[in-house]
Amino acid sequence: MTSETTSAPNFIRNQIREEIEAGRQGKIVTRFPPEPNGFLHIGHAKSICLNFGLAEQFGGDCHLRFDDTNPAKEEQAYIDAIKEDVSWLGYEWAGPVRFASDYFDTLYEWAQHLVREGKAYVDDLSPEEMREYRGTLTEPGRPSPYRERSVDENLDLLERMRVGEFAEGEKVLRARIDMAAPNINLRDPILYRIRHASHHQTGDTWKIYPSYDFTHGQSDALEGVTHSVCTLEFEDHRPLYEWFLDNLPVPAKPRQIEFARLNLNYTLTSKRKLKLLVDEHIVDGWDDPRLPTLSGMRRRGYTPASIRKFCEMIGVTRADGGLVDIAMLYHAIRSDLEDNAPRAMCVLKPLKVVLTNVPEDFEETYEVAGHPAREDMGVRRIPFGREIYIDQDDFMEEPPKKFFRLAPGKEVRLRNSYVIRCDEVIKDEAGEIAELRCSVDFDTLGKNPEGRKVKGVIHWVSAAEAVPMEVRLYDNLFTVEQPDKDKDADFLEHLNPESLTVVQAMGEPSLADAAPESRFQFERVGYFCADRNACQEGKLVFNRTVGLKDGWAKAKKKG
């Protein structure tokens, strides 16, 4: 792990280290408890890297436990995707996959325990009435008229709720704490709701389901979790977390520690809003490469190592550091792919070039390194012939002074090949450039031409052996840094109409057999990944992961 050598702050890691060194803490146990109601995103990655990373660093265990208390919104597909994402990131959970539903019997017994202790009661208030009775941040709440029911009546009603005798919303079980508490979470919170929904793990056994607050801490306690790490929005819930542990016969008392969540600019991580984008077909499913979901980032070409590096770079603090610059994420993936992605040439906007002094039957092949610094990546075969493709952007009829690419009468070097000169521009009936006629200086392979300087180098592919492919150029999904900053506005108004551009490109032959999710640096263009979905359909499609320019690294140097 890189965490022991990084300078990024991580107050939780420092705190645990101090506890262990002082002899106050034995083996640590953490957990990652996702709700199976959507796909994981980059914000979850920070939590995954933190919880599993702490367990790795200190020789402890990290559990994967699904908080499956709301069957109406949960699906097996989400469970499978979450397990795959955690494994893809390179982490292994200790023991079997756990579910909050594994503890439903115990949680129900503990609810009965609270009733017997006079610390819980069945309430008949409607949701609207309950909100009214609850009070506000400045005004205390009022006791429910059902708060003084007897223990026997509450136990009877709770059991009848469990077997499905009442309709949804007709009754709830509430903790009996303090309706005047300054912390609203302590004003008799709901422990159980009636839901006549089949559960993906327990089937139709239960007609009532526990709340997150009633499930969270007790599940931690049952599993022997030592550090219950969560984001800052749960800080106000900590007194309730501790109240349950203090008032139930739990086998252990974990500690809740909160940290600042990840907020990335030009990005949304709200599950509800991401689901809207998917349901309205604004994006192509949960794994659309424009989404910040881990499955989308994986499909776009991000590597587990780059995401883990990014999470280390941003650190772990309690202070809300505002928006993290997405350029930092781009820097993390560039750094990884610069070292590990093989090179290839691909022309995104093909412009045909006929080399007039090359015979029609001329064939030449170059062996080029798969990576300039990695002998283990071998060599690739680059064919050269009379007709080639270059990129339209590498030619201008009337170039500015510092345009060092191809122009009429000007020379440029073909990467790994000869110097060529543009002699003639062929246009179609509409006046558009259709083809270039050029000549080759055969005395320039591997050396500079005699008596003249050629500054420009451009990429190219052989027209005869080029591989046709679809290339998808992805950009930020939103045009503003905080698309949901204005709560009264529609975040969809900030969608980037150019977040996806599809081009029909030509690649070198080595790309023909690209495996799903294989990543390349297309020289002079950017980093790209073979789309796994398209590969399964027998199509050759590459997704742009990120361009070559590293704005974050440049800004960091200046700073």
Detailed description of the structure:
It is found in: Cytoplasm. Its EC number is 6.1.1.18. Residues 27-321 form the Glutamyl/glutaminyl-tRNA synthetase class Ib catalytic domain. L-glutamine binds at residues 67, 212. One of its GO terms (molecular function) is glutamine-tRNA ligase activity. The structure is a single chain. With 559 residues, this protein is an alpha/beta fold. The chain has a domain at 26-259: Rossmann fold (3-Layer(aba) Sandwich). It has helices spanning 11-21, 42-57, 76-88, 104-116, 127-134, 151-162, 212-223, 238-247, 271-279, 294-300, 304-314, 326-340, 532-536, 551-558; strands at residues 29-32, 61-66, 98-99, 120-123, 172-175, 190-194, 208-210, 227-231, 255-259, 343-344, 346-347, 350-355, 364-369, 379-384, 387-391, 411-414, 419-427, 433-441, 457-458, 460-462, 467-474, 500-507, 519-522, 526-530, 541-547. Strands 10-23-24-25-21-22-11 form a 7-stranded mixed beta sheet. A 7-stranded mixed beta sheet has the order 19-16-17-18-12-15-20, with no helix packed on it. Strands 4-5-6-7 form a 4-stranded antiparallel beta sheet. A hairpin with a 3-residue loop joins strand 23 (519-522) and strand 24 (526-530). Helix 2 packs across helix 11 and helix 7 (212-223) packs across helix 8 (238-247). The chain starts with 10 loop residues before the first helix and ends with a helix. Residues 1-6 have low confidence and may be disordered.
